[in-house]
Amino acid sequence: MTEASAIKGHCLCGAVQMTVTPKDDNIGACHCKTCRRWGGGPLMVAECETAVEIEGAGSVTVYDSSPWAERGFCKRCGSHLFYRLKEPGMYFVPLGLLDDSERWVFDHQVFIDEKPSCYEFANETKNMTGSEVFAMYGAPPD
């Protein structure tokens, strides 16, 4: 696991520009029902902790999706911008927003217990249930 350098990204229309410094070059997939409803499939993200700079913040709308998390999107084009844990303000940024698509290593899946049987990733990954994720981040279940 190496420390990742800053990377740029933007929404579909370009109204929101982001500079993020991921924790490392690993990405994960979330299979929870909320993420799948939000994006139509698993959410592939880079964990950026709090290292996120947003230009065009006036175009960002934040939806309070649970007692512990919120989701940001561009109010002009609807692009998903981030999933953020309210405490400690940790960001998870969708891979599709980021400019450098070759640097990533897909190494983990969360809410594996909610993954539907209609798809399967070929990569070998660390898999965590929803309960394990809540234990790791300290967020209470619904």
Mean pLDDT rating: 92
Annotated CATH architecture = Beta Complex
Topology order in helix (H) and strand (E) letters: EEEHEEEEEEEEH
- Sheet with most strands: strand arrangement: 6-7-8-9-4-3-10-11
Topology:
Blueprint: E1 7-10, E2 17-20, E3 26-30, H1 33-39, E4 43-49, E5 52-55, E6 60-63, E7 69-74, E8 80-85, E9 91-94, E10 105-110, E11 126-128, H2 130-137
Parallel strand pairs: 3-10, 10-11
Antiparallel strand pairs: 1-2, 2-5, 3-4, 4-9, 6-7, 7-8, 8-9
What keywords describe this structure?
single chain, 142 residues, mainly beta, Metal Binding Protein, Guanine Nucleotide Exchange Factor, Chain A, 3-stranded antiparallel beta sheet, 2 helices
